[in-house]
Amino acid sequence: MTIPSIALVLGDPAGVGPELVAKVLSQEENREKANIAIIADRDELEKGMKIAGLRFPYEEADDIAKVAFKPGVPVLLHHKGSHPAPFEYGVATEQSGVYMLETLKKAVDMTLAGYTSGICFAPLNKQAMHKGGLKYRDELHWFADLTNFKDFACELNVVDGIWASRVTSHIPFKDIVANLSVETVLDCIELLNRTLKQAGIANPKIAVQALNPHGGEGGLFGDEEITIIKPAMEKAREKGIDVYGPFPADTTLKAVQDQKLNGVVSMYHDQFASAIKMLGFERGVTVQGGVPIAIATANHGTAYNIYGQNLASPSAFHNALELTVNMAKNAR
C-alpha cells in the first residue's frame, strides 16, 4: 500500500516542539504511517532527542526531489536559518520567529510542488512569529496567502473525533455580530463539511450553534438566529449538508454527544472551543481549515515554562500527525 509523504516542522525550537517530535517519532509505528521529511536545524532536532532521552533513525538529504524514502526512516532536510545568532530557549524571540517562518514556508513550497501531501508542525508562538516578520494576525491567513487561497478559512479544533469550527475567529468580541452574515455562516458550514469528508467521514453530521442565550428565545434575547443562522442552515440543507440546531452554547456538547454529531459550527472563537478543550486539551489537534493542503498541529502552545525538562505530553502532537496522514491520503 502506498503511504503519503508528510512535511514535518519542529515549530518553535525555544519551546517543546523538538521534544515532542522526538517522542512521537521514536515510536516505529508512527514513522511507518508516512514518508516523513523533517525540515529542521539538525542541532535542534538532536537537542530535542537529548531532552526526551529518546532517539529515532533518520537520513539526511539536500534536495527533496532526490529523496528515496526507506520504510520507517524519516529524511532530514537540514535548515540552519538565515539568522546566525544562537537560539534563546524558553522565550519568544525574533530569532525563533524567523526560523519558524522559514521552515514552514519550505514545507508549504514542498507540498505545493507535490513532493509532500500534507504538513504537520509542532507548536508555534505567534508573538515570536510576529517578531520574526509575520504580517498576518495568525498563521492560517499566512498559509492562505502562500497557497493563493482566497475563500473562507478558519482554524478547526479536533478532540476525540469531535470537530469545532468558527465563523469568526481572531477578532475583538465587539466586532463579532458585524462579521456574521448568512454567507459567512454558510461558508463555515461548507468548509467543515468538506474537511470532515477529507478526514474520511463520508456523511458528516454538523451542529450549528446559536449566538444568543437560550438560542435567542424567539427574538427576545437577539434575532441573529432568525435573520442569519437559520437561513444559512436552510441553504446548507439545500446543498445536501446534514445540519442540526441551532443549539444554545451551554447545551451544544451534550447535543453533539447524544446525537453522535461529527462537528460544530460556532459563531466566535471561544464559543465551542472552550468546551472541546475541556473535553481533552491534552489530546486536541488544530487543522488549518480551508487552505488547499492538509495542515495540522497540536492544539496547545510552545510551553516555554517547561522547555528542556522532558515534561511535555506527546498525545496531541501524535494525534496531529495521525490526522495529517489521514487527510493527506485523501488529498492525494
Automatic annotation (TrEMBL):
As recorded in UniProt, its EC number(s) are 1.1.1.262
The protein's matches in InterPro entries, at most eight in alphabetical order, are given as: PdxA_fam
**One Pfam family of this chain:** PdxA
Q: Does the keyword Zinc-finger apply?
A: no
Q: Which domain of life is it from?
A: Bacteria
Q: Which UniProt keywords apply?
A: Metal-binding, NAD, Oxidoreductase
Which molecular-function annotations from GO does this UniProt entry contain? 4-hydroxythreonine-4-phosphate dehydrogenase activity; metal ion binding; NAD binding
* EC class of the enzyme, as a word: oxidoreductase
Listed name of the protein: 4-hydroxythreonine-4-phosphate dehydrogenase 2
**Organism in which the protein naturally occurs:** Leminorella richardii
